[in-house]
Amino acid sequence: MLLKECINVYKAFQQISQNTLPLKTSWNIAQNLSKLQPLVESFEEHRKSYIDQLREKATLDSKGEPEVSDEAAALFESQVKELLEEDQKVRLKKVELIDDGQLSIAPNILMAAMDYLTLKSDGNQTS
Hints:
Number of helices: 4
Order of helices and strands: HHEEHEHE
Low-confidence stretches: none
Structural class: mainly alpha
Strand order of the largest sheet: 1-2
Strand content: 5-15%
Oligomer: single chain
Mean pLDDT: 91
Shape: elongated
Number of domains: 1
Radius of gyration: 20 Å
């Protein structure tokens, strides 16, 4: 899984985990989050550190805002893109969501985690 996919899936599972879910579903989401969290936090920590270094080298524009050279900005952008494309060795558990008519998740959240989700109809639900 690419780092950018890890970040998107992590954010999706964070959103899904805000719902009240069955114990096994919650457990699997928590397990996945615990595997993804160190990767996401490490990336953000290093990205922010690099941004801080750029700020120190920045000059102030006419409005007093920090400004970096186009070359430094392009280098930062290319390095971030390269990192986001790196393959991460992480194995996630499939998470079964039960459609009980109460669970509401935005489509973009489902799309981000789709490879790790299965949907099961609630047999107890009456139409």
